[in-house]
């Protein structure tokens, strides 16, 4: 995967990926916008939802009334989220025999896997009109 990040005005940063444009930051009137960390947790929640939906779909279990709640615990001293709770709210008619299995299905989420097996992150900078995309990390 490769994406280019651009500055889209005062306090806005954007990228385009797979035909979608994603912008973070605030607009000029200081209206709140999503921040990069918000997108991280959104990704985790959506990934969990995708795996719950797929679990139900392959077993012909209705999933339309299922909800995923993602809550984080913030540590003010560390300035970090120190705990994430993903709660699956299953409808009354959900087969009880699948409760543990649907929880295990969320463990397959690729975002969650990347948290527990993080990629190496390398940061580099180039000055001038060189093509940053030809950096050593991608060769």
Description:
Helix content is 27%, strand content 24%. It is α+β, with helices and mostly antiparallel strands. The chain folds into 2 domains: 1-34; 36-116, K homology (KH) domain (GMP Synthetase, Chain A, domain 3, 2-Layer Sandwich), CATH 3.30.300.
Give the key terms:
24% strand, 2 domains, single chain, 139 residues, alpha+beta, elongated
SSE ordering:
EEEHEEHH
The number of domains is 2
In terms of quaternary structure, the protein is: single chain
**What's the CATH architecture name of the largest domain?**
2-Layer Sandwich
Total strand segments? 5
Q: Tally the helices: what do you get?
A: 3
| Mean residue pLDDT | 88
Biggest sheet statistics? 3 strands, antiparallel
N-to-C span? 13 Å
Unreliable segments of 5+ consecutive residues? none
Any chance you could write out the topology, listing elements then pairs?
Elements: E1 5-7, E2 12-17, E3 20-25, H1 36-58, E4 67-75, E5 80-89, H2 99-106, H3 110-116
Antiparallel strand pairs: 1-2, 2-3, 4-5
Helix pairs in contact: 1-2
Short description:
This protein is of the alpha+beta class. It has helices at 36-58, 99-106, 110-116; strands at residues 5-7, 12-17, 20-25, 67-75, 80-89.
